Amino acid sequence: MSRVGAIWAEAHGGVIGADGGMPWHVPEDLAHFRDVTMGAPVIMGRRTWESFPDRFRPLPGRRNIVVTRSPEWAAEGADRAGSLAEALALVDGAADAWIIGGGQLYAEAMDVIDVLEVTELDLDVDGDTRAPSRDGWPVTAVGDWQISRTGIRYRFVTHER
């Protein structure tokens, strides 16, 4: 595998989730997520898988790999991995693979990630899940601030080692 990336949207204070979901709706971020990850394997935790509406499981156009410690877990359209290492072994040979959540998996994967695609949201929200620190990650691209059709200000930021 040549590159492992992580992709998330982050509000002020590093908030990436609340109660198993995202406490905002930014359609432009969802489109960016689709464009960036399309055609590549995506690796996620079980709770992230379960947070998707049924009609989006599995995420189309991507191999869906779900990391769970539960050996009996299975879902149509998903490959189960018992660990991050096992998930990465399943995508060996792919040009890119994307870690797509949740917070625990992001934190565990930071040592193997080559690129971060972060949608920064100019938004204060309460949340129970936070992104890992991006300290020490050089910014290699930063988009202009834009306004979502839902009224939330956002921009796309890329970090690469």
Description:
The chain is an alpha/beta fold. It has a single domain (3-160), classed as Dihydrofolate Reductase, subunit A. Helix content is 19%, strand content 31%. It is built from four helices and eleven strands, in the order E-E-H-E-H-E-E-H-E-H-E-E-E-E-E. The strands form two sheets. Strands 1, 3, 4, 5, 6, 7, 9, 10 and 11 form a nine-stranded mixed beta sheet that branches. The chain starts with a strand and ends with a strand. The model has no long low-confidence stretch (mean pLDDT 96).
**According to CATH, what is the topology?**
Dihydrofolate Reductase, subunit A
Record field, number of beta strands:
11
Give me the CATH superfamily. Answer: Dihydrofolate Reductase, subunit A
Give the SSE order as H and E letters.
EEHEHEEHEHEEEEE
> Can you count the helices?
4
Second rung of CATH, namely the architecture: 3-Layer(aba) Sandwich
The level of helicity is: 10-25%
CATH hierarchy, class? Alpha Beta
As a whole number of angstroms, the C-alpha radius of gyration is: 15 Å
What characteristic shape results from the CA principal axes?
Answer: globular
Let me know the largest β-sheet: 9 strands, mixed
Number of domains: 1
Beta-strand residue fraction: 25-35%
| Class from secondary-structure proportions | alpha/beta
- Calculate the terminal CA-CA distance, rounded to whole Å: 16 Å
- Low-pLDDT segments: none
Assembly category: single chain
Mean pLDDT, nearest integer? 96
